[in-house]
């Protein structure tokens, strides 16, 4: 285990198991829909890569990079698009692939943007869900694991851009982000 972690929440094996299960469900739900999976950079990169390997129907991928407006570490709900999609999503069945849903503000805003672009449907697959953090009534349609209201890193999730490469997920020691 990385020395900056308090404890591991989910091992690489557990994460892969859940990812495979979500891939199977998406394959059934989107058979003949040629879904467009939109990975949200950078946090969702590991989840996206593992997930698509277990989707066995025709599908496409695209990516968006977004950042919360303002300097505050708290989500404001207004997102700035740093990298937009390559193509129109009009009439497409979209699955947003996210690392974690916390307040839900980012997701609510993103979903509005995508619906406004006249997608046929917009659903959300999130590897982690922090239900205690929620400030708007939105939940992922497909979810890997619920997590406690603590700061977690690994499997794409960062603190100051570090730890994204850990193949497992754990709780960061508070002394690391308080110093
Ligand atoms: P919302 O708008 O749902 O934002 O509050 C979700 C985004 O907040 C980040 N986030 C985290 N990142 N560990 C992280 O590394 C966490 O525990 C955590 N909780 C929220 C993340 O960027 C996510 O997309
Ligand atoms: Mg982050």
Automatic annotation (TrEMBL):
The places in or outside the cell where this protein is found are: Cytoplasm
CDD domains reported for this sequence: PRTases_typeI
**Enzyme category, top tier:** transferase
Q: Which InterPro entries match?
A: HGPRT, Hxn_phspho_trans, PRTase-like, PRTase_dom
Keywords of the record, alphabetical order, are: Cytoplasm, Glycosyltransferase, Magnesium, Metal-binding, Nucleotide-binding, Purine salvage, Transferase
Pathway membership, UniProt: Purine metabolism; IMP biosynthesis via salvage pathway; IMP from hypoxanthine: step 1/1; Purine metabolism; GMP biosynthesis via salvage pathway; GMP from guanine: step 1/1
Q: What range(s) does the Phosphoribosyltransferase domain occupy?
A: 26-159
Give the required cofactors.
Answer: Mg(2+)
User: What is catalyzed by this enzyme?
Assistant: IMP + diphosphate = hypoxanthine + 5-phospho-alpha-D-ribose 1-diphosphate; GMP + diphosphate = guanine + 5-phospho-alpha-D-ribose 1-diphosphate
Q: What does this protein do?
A: Purine salvage pathway enzyme that catalyzes the transfer of the ribosyl-5-phosphate group from 5-phospho-alpha-D-ribose 1-diphosphate (PRPP) to the N9 position of the 6-oxopurines hypoxanthine and guanine to form the corresponding ribonucleotides IMP (inosine 5'-monophosphate) and GMP (guanosine 5'-monophosphate), with the release of PPi.
Q: Which family is this sequence assigned to? A: Belongs to the purine/pyrimidine phosphoribosyltransferase family.
Alphabetical list of NCBIfam families matching this protein: HGPRTase
Name recorded for this polypeptide:
Hypoxanthine phosphoribosyltransferase
